[in-house]
Amino acid sequence: MKLGLRSMVMAGLVLAAVMAAPGPAQAATSQDFGPRIVTGIPNSATQLVIPMATIESKQLPAGANAYVYSELKAQDADGVNLIDNEIRCSGAGGSDVVLGENVLPPTGDPAHQKITIVNRFLVTAKQAGTITCTLYLRTSSTGDHVAKETVSGTVRFTPDPVPGDVTGAAIQKSLPSGNTTLSSTVVAPVIDRDIPLGFSFVDVIADTEFHWCASTTVCAKSPDNYSKARFALTATTSGGATCASAPVVQTDETVQQGVNHAAIPLYTRVAVKPGCTHLHAQVTGTYLAGNVGLVGGGVDLTDSTGSADTHPAAMTHMFAVPRTS
Questions:
Q1: For residue 99, which of 68, 72, 134, 66 has the smallest C-alpha distance?
Q2: pLDDT (tens digit, 9 = 90+) per residue, 187-243?
Q3: Can you give the pTM of this predicted structure?
Q4: What H or E segment, with its residue span, contains residue 4?
Q5: Are 160 and 59 in contact (CB under 8 A)?
Q6: Using CA atoms, how far apart are residues 221 and 46, in angstroms rounded to an integer?
């Protein structure tokens, strides 16, 4: 009976995607979408992959850094459903970044019955032209039945290109593929860059993917049904006299069984005093209690629903934006 249900799910995935989400509207620099009811979410390792919105940058010169910002909201799930916010960019510059967590049904923790996954990053134009980015919902059910949920959100380019370091390169760092075990302390990502003269502040943005435990074997043997860790974003400047440090931004995150993973957005701002043009920024993850956790690095994702073809995507990452005000 279960095999028959899964076969029917697989056969209907493409149809479900089309019914739930018609093609993206004509590209603009900003797009909102939803609320949209998504049905036919498979209860298998297969993810339903749906393009939700597509944006296109202004004309960019080669080497310019565009800032992409997005929010994917999910609610009204009838089970525990995986929600991934993936953004793929192509054209004059390419990038792929994904972050995710689970949304819970009305019987679950109220804090996770409605979730918002923020995904933001820099993408560099390798040649003059425009960059096109599409936000994809990637979703599947962790239960024993085909599921549904309601999603909405936004994706946009910020109005102006973002300055880079003294060489013009985007001030950005993503963790490599794979997961880093968080059993004590992990310092990653780390940025060490020199910024150009003429800026008064640097905004530092970090998005961390925190997973529940290091392996299914460890989880199965542990009496704990959660993992708790602290994540702190720090930023300092150096190179001159009385250089400034940013306010430390810190959050304690407890991931319960069923929620399994969390996308954690962090932000701080540091003043740039005369001569203090070297920036050091880092995220420090500290294990606190429960199961051993993971900091999620890059992953391989299927190109579309049921596809055998895959592509790499960044996950935990950090970037900086120099500003004059």
A1: 72
A2: 999 999 999 999 999 999 999 999 987 666 666 666 788 999 999 999 999 999 999
A3: 0.90
A4: helix 2-20
A5: no
A6: 27
